[in-house]
Amino acid sequence: MDYYxxxxxxxxxxxxxxxxxxxxxxxxxxAEKWKNEGDSSAFKKTFDAKGPFADFRIDTRLIPDxxxxxxxxxxxxxxxxxxxxxxxxxQRGIKPEIxxxxxxxxxxNEIMTVSKCPECGRMEATLxxxxxxxxxxxxxxxxxxxxxxxxxxxxxxxxxxxxAEEIKRERRKTITRLENSGIPYIESxxxxxxxxxxxxxxxxxGKLLKSLRENIFIPLKK
Length: 222
Known about the structure:
Distance between the termini: 45 Å
Strand order of the largest sheet: 3-2-1-4-5
Structural class: alpha+beta
Radius of gyration: 20 Å
Number of strands: 5
Oligomer: single chain
Largest sheet: 5 strands, mixed
């Protein structure tokens, strides 16, 4: 299978589904260069300082639904990373292998970032934090499965519409780990602006390490 063309077509679909047809046309041109000239570098060049994707961002100005925006933006980023990896292979004459990509693409996080009160040290997680923690392996598996099975565009549609069943499953597993650790959480996309324990402000970033022995997180001092 032509995994590189498949990935570019996936990027194009995501952009079309997001209403960004102008950018999708740029990707289509790169796909044509790959098909007709064997040039896998054209897409990478669109992210150069003066390229059409130089300042491109998927944010809530494009997708007001914060949850859908998160999963669309992160799926887009994963597809760009996959395209860069495949370009690397093609530039060096290496045949892309699904087994290699499944093993090395989108490795799970071991560290979770949450909000931390600088006054009393209380930590609190939100759905944003939870989804940042779980999204990389969820998206990576869907992308690699789609490449292997020839249905990448279908997998992308499932991801950007937050219909992947494993999203809820991985959220629940992470919430259980937080509960076991005594870390409070909010199941919505919000920003923690203050500590409800001591009233402290200017919340800072806290780190939680996923324990390999127990179903808990271990707070890190720094």
